[in-house]
Amino acid sequence: MSTTLLDDSAKIFPTVQMHRQHLHAHPELSFQEVETCAYIQRELSALGIPHRVVARTGVVAHIGTGTRCVALRADIDALPITENTGLPYTSTVPGVMHACGHDTHTSMLLGAARLLKERESELGGVVKLLFQPGEEKTPGGASIMIAEGALEDPVPEIIFGQHINPDSPAGRVEFVAGSMMAAADELYWEITGFGAHAAQPHKGHNPIMAATALVQHLQSLITQSRNPLDAGVVTVTALHGGHATNVIPDTVEMKGTLRSFNPAWREHAWQWLEDHTRRIAELYGCHGHLRIEKGYPPLVNDAAATSFARSVAESLLGIDNVGSFEPKMWGEDFAYYSQMMPACFWMLGGRPHTASTMPGLHNAAFAPDESAMIHGAALLAQVAVQALQR
Ligand SMILES: [Zn+2]
Ligand SMILES: [Zn+2]
């Protein structure tokens, strides 16, 4: 069985590659994936796979019958980046690019759909395919798909997903059990002081003094309020205020991000950041306000689901093509599925074998090796088949 699915995936690779190059040339931003959604539906219809639209530009499809169900998910959206790869199928949409590889994710799930449809009569249940919009933008398409009932009728008992990875060679699959990606919250500060002549600081309250003190102080959230065994990051990424050498401005604006794994510490950090913003600003006679835009929860891989998927990958792809992934503080809205059922999200190497490095995710020159999709499509299909045989 295992060699057959990998062989068959190699046979259909030209079709998967055609999907990928079409989607790559026609990228659409989060929650605007109208043509992508239509393309997915056309391909599913051609394969005779029933499907419906959810979350406006997402698609849910079912292969097989029965009471048991496993789910496979791919995200479908692109990013606001101007492509700089020079590829013949480069983006035709100015300022929009598939720079996170979601075109490969979508194409591999379409490939897996084809492989599974050919084996529909042998499946021990239903494989639910989730083509999900809006991964790159809060609140994320996953939470909307779930709210609109994509995980109902039938309810999956387990879910798998994958992400292309520029840091490992094409076709190598990497797993990690437990926390894999972080909770990601956006931070927006406004520090309000009182403007004055720069030569008379005693007549004003300089928000730049408060803001710079706050930037320094924020790191004590990490060093003093966090168990060192829990990962956590707070990074200030923008600081804007003032315009002249002789004017103390009224306000300063700052932006940043909070990343964490531990839900209890995350809540503590929200409170700490609000409190300390207010108190540090007060020390300088200013008013400090922090708005927190809460993002995705942490992505946690189920231990049993991960060891199952890893063993499937080892027999399908060979032990040399399977490895371990070091968790990252990135965000990924597959996290919402991982809160609802046993889940495993793996990384699929996409770096050309001839290169020692390649431009990373969200880079305008990101160009993964398409041959990785042979392994990715085969593994999606194989975990679904075997999960339903368990
Ligand atoms: Zn991304
Ligand atoms: Zn992504």
Q: Can you walk through the features of this model?
A:
With 390 residues, the chain is an alpha/beta fold. It has two domains: 2-179 and 298-389, 3-Layer(aba) Sandwich (Aminopeptidase); 183-293, Alpha-Beta Plaits (2-Layer Sandwich), CATH 3.30.70.360. Helix content is 35%, strand content 25%. It is built from ten helices and 16 strands. The strands form four sheets. An eight-stranded mixed β-sheet has the order 1-2-4-3-5-16-6-15, with helices on both faces. The chain has a four-stranded antiparallel β-sheet with strand order 10-12-8-13, covered by helices on one side. Strand 3 (69-75), helix 4 (102-118) and strand 4 (126-132) form a beta-alpha-beta unit. The protein is elongated and about 80 Å long.
Task: Give the helix/strand layout.
Elements: H1 2-11, H2 13-25, H3 34-46, E1 51-54, E2 58-63, E3 69-75, H4 102-118, E4 126-132, H5 141-147, E5 158-169, E6 173-175, E7 178-181, E8 183-192, E9 196-197, H6 207-224, E10 232-240, E11 247-248, E12 251-260, H7 263-283, E13 287-293, E14 299-301, H8 303-317, E15 322-324, H9 335-338, E16 343-351, H10 372-389
Parallel strand pairs: 3-4, 3-5, 5-16, 6-15
Antiparallel strand pairs: 1-2, 2-4, 6-16, 7-14, 8-12, 8-13, 9-11, 10-12
Helix pairs in contact: 1-10, 2-4, 4-10, 6-7, 8-10
Bound molecules: zinc ion (2 copies).
One zinc ion binds next to loops.
